[in-house]
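For the sake of transparency, this paper describes our internal protein records without simplification. Because each token names a local backbone shape, the row as a whole describes the fold. One such record is reproduced below, unchanged from the form in which we store it.
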Amino acid sequence: MRVTASAVSLNVDDVEASASFLKRHFGFTEAMAADGFVSLSRPDVGFNVIYLRTGLKSLKPESLKTRRADGLIVAFVVDDIDAEYARIQAEGVKILTPIETEAWGERYFQVTDANGVIVQLVQWMHTPGQAEGVA
């Protein structure tokens, strides 16, 4: 198998609200759009983020039409978590989880869009699985 592209597809009530949030605060651009659908990309992310309107007629399987992506976490690893935290605060985005560092080296914070999709920015302070200070 050869994978040529990848995407995560999220069902939300308000496609435009979620798309605008990623475009405005995280630099995504619109790759494709139609009624109830938008695909966003960034060249450095490696996958597209797709929003589908909940209940969209073409959504398959049928059992997922009313399911929502609220509570889902979309994580992006960044180089300077503290700078991103300051930038997001300056843009007036409500912080869901203030910046913190886990024992395993993950320094992160979380925000949420209007549909409840959580965006988490992460910086690894040391290699996962390594004790802090061990090379």
Q: What stands out?
A: Helices lie at 15-26, 81-90.
